[in-house]
Amino acid sequence: MAGRTEDELQGITQLGNRGTDYRFGYSPNILEAFDNKHPGRDYFVKFNCPEFTSLCPMTGQPDFATLYISYIPDLRMVESKSLKLYLFSFRNHGDFHEDCINIIMNDLIALMGPRYIEVWGKFTPRGGISIDPYCNWGRPGTKYEHMAEHRLLNHDLYPEKVDNR
Fold first, then answer.
1. Is residue 135 flagged as an active site residue?
2. Which of 2, 24, 83, 105 is most open to solvent, judged by the fewest CB atoms within 10 Å of its CB?
């Protein structure tokens, strides 16, 4: 990570590690964070994760999704390789779509303490139905709490044309 001092990279172990440990069970301890170099500014960071996989807790069949994770950082930011490995850890994790999305958001809140965050899963259809859970959170008592409420109330006002994904 160019432009980062050694102190700022303290605790970052996944980035640049050629001996990557892929976990095959849910592992929130994989997540790593680093200092936000622009804490005085509001800005979005968005991750598009088109290869998310988890398991149906009832059938054991795989579920596939594209995840969209957007957040406004405060003091800490999630390191992207650790996020990739964390999401990979859901590969053999059995939970419903809605639970996976909320678990991911809760783990990222615990890691970073963002001002605002939203997680949207767009799962591929199984049995002729796709499920697209969305959750968000804004820091209580701030404008971000109001932002979360507004975005939730206005979420998906214009549903996309589904082309079998």
1. no
2. 2
